[in-house]
């Protein structure tokens, strides 16, 4: 545990990380909520290309934290690497602020954002863990609040940046509207960095071993060189979809192969836990395919086939911008998370808490119901547009599924994986999640609307066909998860009897 001299309260140290994380998520989700629409409406990308470019970017955003965590632990220091990542992200969003329609410039900007995310995310989570090192009671509470920071920051930005885009676009110019909205994301990081500057002393005692010494020049130069290569490679992958597909599918095959090798070569007592971890990882990958629809097919569906007015008993309460519907995910998570925590605790006290594998099954059932909700909305659509309330309830069910599946994914991997394999498994989990994000974009393209279709009645049929099929896949995943319950129960029992030392507890916002 880090020694504090002079003593600094854990709360103050945590608040520093909390606030910069909140602003970082403000910037990231403010950018994400607009990106696919920006490519389609401003840069003229077909739906297919916009979905795949963002899918490739999402995959890289999930993969690079494995590198960033390693740099923080071994070379630059956890604290310095987090700060460097925040600066790089600020630069990435600032590049999007520049009014240009160059697609290559977009790829470079996304490459910078991918690098910045990789440096920032794992190290911010590690700092929270180090602040509460040895205090397992407080660390769970801290990560709960930390998760709230993510959703508070993302909710505000997903509501704000589309409004700024429309307001500036209406009063000045469309181009200025888009780039000003992206600029606000950069301003969010600037505010986070200013806040960090004034509170930096609260983290002076927290970090990894390299934080305690001046950084070596050779390490700095090597990291700068590697960063430039990552940006260039990311830009190249984003503009070459054949390369992107090859990288994604090769990564998936390699991860599966390594999983199989580790299971075959592991000790008898470790094998049951590793098989259980593999089963849960595969189920989580299916969830992320559903998850990717939020920024792709569901986003474009809101553009074309959703009545943007929220009406209640004949009265118009308010009207939303299409991209703002994505904020419903974060809003519902804020509402549902404390309810589920209370339910888990209550059931646990009475010894009636149901197993994690059962929660996965319930999560997939909720996701399936969410996608069917959009299909149900089509039955009452007027002129090809469904009521906005169907989006609210669809996102609510989908978000319940996210809390039940994705919210437990990392914690369960940590429970079943031996400590000596923990670092690799965390990296493999994130890379697998990135592969799933790209696959989700491929799935979204089954509802890509051709340029010659402008009638909402035609596009409604295409979208709801995909959503109903995703609902059926969700039912299939639920059935598989239920069918796996006896096996998972047996694997969990064998793992418990083997008494394998577990990996330290982890939380999903380590990413």
From TrEMBL:
GO molecular-function term, one example from the UniProt record: dipeptide transmembrane transporter activity
Origin: domain of life: Bacteria
Matching Pfam families: PTR2
Cited Gene3D superfamilies: MFS general substrate transporter like domains
Keywords of this entry: Cell membrane, Membrane, Peptide transport, Protein transport, Transmembrane, Transmembrane helix, Transport
Gene Ontology cellular-component terms listed: plasma membrane
InterPro entries tied to this protein: Dipep/tripep_permease (IPR005279), MFS_trans_sf (IPR036259), MFS_Transporters (IPR050171), POT_fam (IPR000109)
Membrane topology: Multi-pass membrane protein
GO biological process, one term: tripeptide transmembrane transport
Primary localisation category: membrane
Annotated compartments: Cell membrane
Entry coiled-coil feature ranges: none
NCBIfam families: yjdL_sub1_fam
Protein name as it appears in the record: MFS transporter
Organism: Luteibacter rhizovicinus DSM 16549
């Amino acid at each position: 545990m880090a020694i504090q001299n002079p003593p600094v309260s854990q709360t103050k140290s945590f608040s520093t990380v909390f606030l910069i994380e909140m602003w970082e998520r403000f910037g990231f989700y403010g950018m994400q909520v607009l990106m696919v629409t920006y490519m389609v409406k401003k840069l003229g990308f077909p739906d297919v290309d916009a979905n795949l470019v963002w899918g490739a970017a999402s995959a890289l955003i999930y993969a690079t934290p494995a590198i960033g965590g390693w740099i923080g632990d071994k070379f630059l220091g956890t604290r310095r690497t987090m700060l460097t990542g925040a600066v790089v992200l600020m630069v990435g969003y600032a590049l999007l602020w520049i009014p240009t329609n160059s697609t290559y410039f977009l790829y470079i900007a996304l490459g910078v954002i991918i690098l910045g995310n990789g440096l920032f995310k794992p190290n911010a989570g590690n700092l929270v863990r180090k602040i509460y090192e040895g205090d397992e009671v407080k660390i769970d509470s801290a990560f709960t609040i930390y998760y709230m920071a993510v959703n508070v920051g993302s909710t505000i930005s997903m509501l704000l940046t589309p409004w700024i885009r429309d307001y500036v676009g209406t009063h000045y110019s469309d181009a200025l509207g888009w780039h000003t909205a992206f600029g606000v994301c950069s301003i969010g990081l600037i505010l986070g960095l200013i806040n960090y500057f004034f509170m930096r002393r609260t983290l002076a005692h927290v970090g990894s071993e390299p934080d305690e010494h001046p950084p070596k020049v050779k390490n700095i130069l090597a990291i700068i060189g590697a960063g430039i290569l990552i940006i260039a490679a990311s830009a190249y992958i984003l503009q070459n979809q054949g390369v992107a597909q090859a990288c994604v599918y090769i990564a998936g095959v390699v991860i599966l192969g390594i999983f199989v090798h580790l299971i075959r070569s592991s000790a008898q007592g470790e094998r049951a836990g590793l098989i259980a971890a593999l089963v849960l990882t595969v189920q989580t990958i299916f969830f992320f395919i559903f998850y990717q629809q939020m920024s792709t097919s569901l986003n474009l569906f809101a553009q074309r086939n959703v009545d943007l007015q929220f009406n209640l008993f004949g009265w118009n309460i308010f009207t939303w911008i299409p991209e703002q519907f994505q904020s419903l995910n974060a809003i519902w998570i804020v509402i549902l998370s404390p309810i589920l925590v209370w339910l888990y605790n209550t059931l646990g006290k009475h010894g009636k808490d149901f197993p994690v594998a059962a929660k996965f099954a319930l999560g997939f059932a909720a996701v399936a119901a969410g996608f069917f909700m959009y299909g149900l909305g089509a039955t009452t659509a007027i002129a090809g547009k469904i009521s906005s309330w169907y989006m609210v309830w669809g996102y609510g069910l989908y978000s319940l599924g996210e809390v039940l599946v994705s919210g437990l994914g990392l914690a369960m991997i940590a429970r079943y994986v031996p400590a000596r394999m923990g670092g690799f498994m965390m990296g493999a989990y994130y890379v697998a999640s990135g592969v799933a994000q790209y696959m989700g974009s491929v799935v979204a393209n089954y509802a890509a609307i051709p340029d010659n279709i402008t009638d909402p009645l035609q596009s409604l049929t295409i979208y709801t066909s995909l959503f109903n099929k995703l609902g059926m896949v969700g039912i299939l995943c639920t059935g598989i998860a239920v069918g796996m319950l006896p096996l998972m129960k047996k694997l969990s029992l064998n793992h418990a009897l083997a008494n394998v030392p577990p990996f330290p507890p982890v939380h999903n916002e380590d990413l």
